[in-house]
Write a structure and sequence with these properties.
alpha+beta; Immunoglobulin-like; Serine Threonine Protein Phosphatase 5, Tetratricopeptide repeat; 2 domains; three-stranded antiparallel β-sheet; 7 helices
């Protein structure tokens, strides 16, 4: 019978899958396909399969259980996933090399225009270069796709540098309403209320 393939929490730049059963399996053969072509075939002895992205593309993984003679059973249902090589290459360069990161992240967004994380990291790369007007619409697009505290805190920081203190305060307070222990948001809020000459707001 076919095994089950389940996505597991991914590492930095890696895609991890958990392989389940069937009873008596002595290992697995795993295939990664993209565009109808097999791009990787590997034998796995453990219960997890870790794939290092090779490109920016849609792919799918399926597994075959191996018995004690090394014979294959039926394939699992294919599990689709995204290879995001450029995203992780760009993210690894931040914040030390924002210009170098920008090139990778633009490729990542070109392939997956709905990738909120990639859009947010691209906005961060522009922010680090002082290109605030270019970064703002990207942050807003990323937040429309994924209202993440990390993206929102960085957006608040951008608004602070644009001297949009009232908007920045609203952003930080929204993050703190959901995550009262967020230290980046607390620090950002302190900067904003001091810029607004409202130090008593720190006690609210």
């Amino acid at each position: 019978p076919p095994p089950l393939v389940r996505p597991a929490p991914e590492g930095t730049g890696q895609v991890v899958f958990r392989l389940v059963g069937p009873e008596g399996a002595r290992g697995f053969r795993v295939e990664v396909r993209s565009g109808g072509q097999v791009v990787l075939s590997a034998q796995v002895t453990g219960r997890t399969f870790t794939y290092q992205p090779q490109a920016d593309r849609l792919a799918e993984v399926r597994a075959f259980a191996l018995d004690e003679l090394g014979l294959e059973g039926f394939p699992s249902d294919p599990v689709p996933f995204r290879e995001r090589k450029s995203f992780f290459l760009g993210k690894a360069l931040l914040p030390q090399d924002p210009k170098g990161a920008e090139a990778h992240l633009r490729r990542a967004v070109a392939v997956f225009p709905d990738d909120a994380e990639a859009i947010g990291e691209l906005a961060f790369a522009l922010y680090l270069q002082g290109r605030y007007p270019e970064a703002r619409p990207l942050y807003e697009k990323a937040l429309a796709l994924l209202d993440s505290p990390d993206i929102r805190v960085r957006y608040g920081r951008l608004l602070y540098h644009l001297r949009r203190y009232g908007e920045a305060e609203e952003v930080y307070r929204r993050v703190l309403a959901q995550d009262p222990g967020n230290l980046d948001a607390r620090w950002g809020l302190a900067e904003v209320v001091l810029a607004l000459a409202r130090p008593k707001a720190l006690l609210e």
